[in-house]
Amino acid sequence: MENQVTAFLDDAIIARGDRDAVTHAVEERWPDAHGAVRVFDDATGRAVDLDLWDAAVTAAEPAPRTRGRPKLGVVAREITLLPRQWDWLARQPGGASATIRKLVEAARKDAPAAEARRDAVYRFLTAMAGDRPGYEEALRALYRGEGDRFRSLIADWPEDVRAYAERLLGAGEVPD
User: Fold this and answer.
1) Regarding predicted confidence, which is higher, 51 or 16?
2) Residue 59 above 50 pLDDT?
3) Average pLDDT over the chain, rounded to an integer
4) Letter string b/e over residues 84-98, b meaning 16 or more CB atoms within 10 A of that residue's CB
5) What local confidence, expressed as pLDDT, does residue 172 receive?
6) Where are the domains of the chain?
7) What is the CA angle 140-146-149, rounded to 5?
8) Phi, psi (5° rounding) for residue 13?
9) Structure pTM?
């Protein structure tokens, strides 16, 4: 599900796929619904923004030159560290950037998958169902690993909202 998004209009899924495909689908099929469309990252459950501009306008503008290695997907951003942390990074083989990349990859591999899936469902439900009956109790059941209770609490919610929450959980199971 990496780099995949799902778009909702009200409580219904209207598009799913990579960001460009979903952007194109929303622009073509729901041109007046831009403000009402909510889009979620399928890996994290985070709300994401689509660049809903006319492709002709964005194609005419040259892309700004960025630092790093954009052809490899490297993005330059600012980070803030204490002086002692910068000193430690400077002493590492390969430099600060290589060390930070290694640390991030190691953390990604070590992160418990079940916890990440629960957190993704939490983020999605907070955005889409925070005002629905049983929301808080459903989240408690989710984090307690009470799958049957979780499902019973969301049973009356819109079908696409329930189905997407289950999809984010993966394998249809509330992790323990």
Assistant:
1) 16
2) no
3) 83
4) eeeeebeeeeeebee
5) 47
6) 4-60, 70-110, 113-169
7) 85
8) -75, 125
9) 0.64
